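Help!! Second protein's tokens look totally different from the first
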Amino acid sequence: MPAPTTASKPANDRRFLGRLSLPERRFVADALRTETVGGVLLLVAAIAALVWANSPLKDAYAAIRDFHIGPAALGLDLSIQHWAADGLLAIFFFVAGIELKRELVAGELRDPKAAALPVIAAICGMAVPALVYTVVNVAGGGDLGGWAVPTATDIAFALAVLAVIGTSLPSALRAFLLTLAVVDDLFAILIIAIFFTGELNFAALGGAVVGLAVFWLLLRKGVRGWYVYVPLALIIWGLMYNSGVHATIAGVAMGLMLRCTAREGEEHSPGEHIEHLVRPVSAGLAVPLFALFSAGVTISGKAVSDVFTQPVTLGVVLGLVVGKAVGVFGGTWLAARFTRASLNPDLAWPDVFAVASLAGIGFTVSLLIGELAFAGDPALTDEVKAAVLIGSLIAATLASVLLKLRVRKYQALCAEEERDEDHDGIPDVYEEHDPEYHLRMAEIYERKAAEHRERAQLAGASRDEADRPA
């Protein structure tokens, strides 16, 4: 994370989980606010699905979930569940693509040195859960096909947990969790594209590539209007679905094409503007509906006990709870150790472990990968979904306990971050610890004063011209 600017800070010192820059802090706050609301809706949708699927109305739930709709001639006669997983989640991955592009060009990932730590943490946070799953299933004679299920992190669900428990997590920890999730999403996308692509239809794939090229060209030419891009995006999505490549990849590709750097005269880049418009649709509609039609599994005492006795489901639970925490924490510690990055003195390594435990909440993408991995076995698919739900619940509980132990420290840090005694809209901590701040403010004031004097002189000259006799 970016280090705070201090007069005495050595040039070669790198601070991990230090204070964010003020613009980055504001961006993270806005992004996390939307994700938190979406996470709460996701939580409500998941609970509603479980209650519905285990109520006397469970037959109605199954009938709606399996109801097919769509043009069969275009290869899109899909069930409601598939429309949610393949269609609505394309919106979620479109936003993920924009987030990734922004991180690469304007966020934490633009600097290779700063990016090394969250990237290594994310890689270890996916490799260790996969290893845990593999070891459990090799030892128990289970199915190795689900190795990717416990590798994903659900940032919306993780932030919903934070909202529910009311933890005042410092902005640096929240930003680390967000960056970690963005990198995690990237590798999850690669896993889906590489390992869960079926038999390829090269004609449809070629059409999707041509559509993406047209999409890119229109963006470069500065063409505007949703009525141009939305129909084109639907065509690209339909072609990608029929190509055999998972349709959500189309969303990622289009998100990565958007420009995420602001030009002169622009308050926000096109990517940030579109993300601001689409994120509420993703977090408030697409992901909750996916959860509603994917999380509805029948839960019984025997089903719960089977989760901890069958190698496939036990591997998923241990991968999420143990593998994620150990992987993210271990990767972070190793990266900090070998890049000589020092931990923010206001925080401690147990704080990092608590956030690493939150990464074990692998709801949305884990459910999706579970459906893809065991598509031919509906019973096993439901068991894996139950394991994802139970593993995510255990990880959320563990993280909540760990974060509650430090809640007073976090509240004090957040209060310090928010303190603004001069009411100028800029937290005092950014002024007190930056010796160049007042010099920059003086330069800005002088520039504005010069512009004001110049406008006054021009206005005076115009009046003199008007008063002069013809």
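Here's the second one for comparison:
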Amino acid sequence: MIISTIVLLGAMLLGVPIAFSIALSALGYFLAVNANLLVLPQQFIGQLGNIPLIAIPFFILAGELMNCGGVTRRIFAFALACVGRVPGGLGHTNVVAGMIFAGMSGSAVADLASVGKIGMKAMRDSDYPDDLSIGVITTTATIGPIIPPSINMVIFGSIANVPIGLLFLGGVIPGVLTGLMLMLMFAFLFWRRKVKVKAAPDVSFWRALREGFWSLMTPVVLLGSMFSGVATPTEAAILATVYTLIVAGLIYRELTWRNVVEALISTTTLSGAIMLIIGFAAPLGYVISRSQVAGGLSDFLLGSLHDPTMIMLATAVLLLIVGCFMEVAAAIILLTPVLGVALIATGLDPVYIGVMMVYTLGIGLVTPPVGLCLYVGSQVSGISLEKVIVAVWPFLIPLVVTMILIILFPQTITWLPNLVYAN
């Protein structure tokens, strides 16, 4: 296992793409112990044959189609009608719109690239300071992978054999709590800085509801089909894509064939990258299992930290550090066979572990140097990366506070899954 670790770190330092760095680390171990190399392709193909993974490209495609089909704009208008009249209304509007969109796409980047672009323009038009605007917009994107559906939870569930429906339900309360915390922080900063802005556009609630009704029904159709037992998470992802095509193409008539082709190309590129990482992580997971790393880590955690809360807090610190240097999906794929399995072995609730890992690693989306949302936020706003990083710092406080709350009170994660699936 030491050889695999050295090869993995060395390849990453040399700039080798993460998927191939993972593959090389597994190959290094097999060559060192003279193991049967046929296991490598068998593990690769076996992992990609996991049915729940089919949901990933469909969730990505649904998000891409929403961006160009008028869905996002209507969601933002509805959120503006709900909270736009309160002081600092456009900041709160971005959070509410981000939470609604999170119930459709499952991706932080899709959330930021769509809702963020509309929100940034609206806040500039109303004279909001750029740093305050991009700070709340960028950090709101982290809600995307928490509120169901969530691509990252699909990855964790498929690797750790945890029901994805339970993980989705476990993310609801932490996601809503995060949104409320971000709104409180924005309200405090808005008040403390005595920001003077133009009044938000006056949008009729009933008109916004009427025009955005079919858009707002997307998470209802998606989540309702899953939790009513009509569809599995995989089937629900396909249903969400079909529903988006119908709404954007036939009802709103804003989706063109060119939009569909561009969405398909973008989905193929992103899904292919994720699938390569997942596939190559399977042989590495085999190496980890063969080396009994998870068992050793579990014994260490139980031996040195007897309290479950202390175990999770120590794990959170580790995940925060990892999240600064590794993309979230890749970190979940790498850590789930080791850390995730070890934590489950200590007797902790697998749903609690999965949601906590996804949430904590998601904070890495807005922390340098690898934070992907920082780069997307810079691109969306036209603000330099350095200024985006400074603007985001105050909004990290509510994210970390929420992380601590869900660790101290596991019921925030487990209550809803236990309620829905009580039988």
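Reply: Different proteins will give different token patterns, so don't panic. The chain has a mean pLDDT of 84.
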